[in-house]
Amino acid sequence: DGGITQSPKYLFRKEGQNVTLSCEQNLNHDAMYWYRQDPGQGLRLIYYSQIVNDFQKGDIAEGYSVSREKKESFPLTVTSAQKNPTAFYLCASTSGAGGRSGANVLTFGAGSRLTVL
Amino acid sequence: QKEVEQNSGPLSVPEGAIASLNCTYSDRGSQSFFWYRQYSGKSPELIMSIYSNGDKEDGRFTAQLNKASQYVSLLIRDSQPSDSATYLCAPRRAGSYQLTFGKGTKLSVIP
Questions:
Q1: Residue A6 and residue A11: Cα distance in Å, rounded?
Q2: CB A100 within 8 A of CB B94
Q3: Which region, left, alpha or beta, applies to residue B104 given φ > 0 means left and ψ of -120 to 50 means alpha?
Q4: Nearest CA in chain A to B43
Q5: Given B34, B96, B104, which is nearest A42 (Cβ)?
Q6: pLDDT by 10s per residue, chain B, length 111
Q7: Does a cis peptide bond (omega within 30 degrees of 0) precede residue B10?
Q8: Cα distance from A57 to chain B (closest Cα, Å)?
Q9: Residue in B45, B96, B102 closest to A98 by CB
């Protein structure tokens, strides 16, 4: 079955450490995204990538980095510069940009929950 | 600044009643509108999408859109306890890769 796989599901980090969250999709989607969700909050966009070897900052990119070396993969690194990294991280993908018909619906992975100790 | 406003709730309705969830948005360039359901601790899943003014029905769900008023709503008929979740509203501009999410409305259906 096609889908988005995120790993690990749960991750604990000590302060000062960088951690990398994995996101792999087999939907043949061109665009991939990383969102962050805090309790009682909506989803905030961290980074997104429209094509391989290209990505753009979202609303809250500071303290995060990404790469897009393969179409299927879009890993997110939470660096030590991120002051409050404890959150639920969601990876998503679409086949392209939204058209008037509303094609290219955002599909999510199961999420990764990061806790800083 | 694009803003999407939703009542945070919790919205409590008895089983079998109609639940009405509302969303207003500030970006007049928004052309596609999505409702996602998110169970506690899980990722969002798409419930409905709507692109034209008026109503769109899918089973027990009806999405309503009024672009002039910058308002979109989701009605859930014959509410079930399994509908208890947080519902996220997300508009998107045509040709854009980005969705802007509201903070969500928490719905509780009481048996």
A1: 12
A2: yes
A3: left
A4: A110
A5: B104
A6: 668 999 888 999 999 999 999 999 999 999 899 999 999 999 999 999 999 999 999 999 999 999 999 999 999 999 999 999 999 999 998 778 788 999 999 999 999
A7: yes
A8: 11
A9: B96
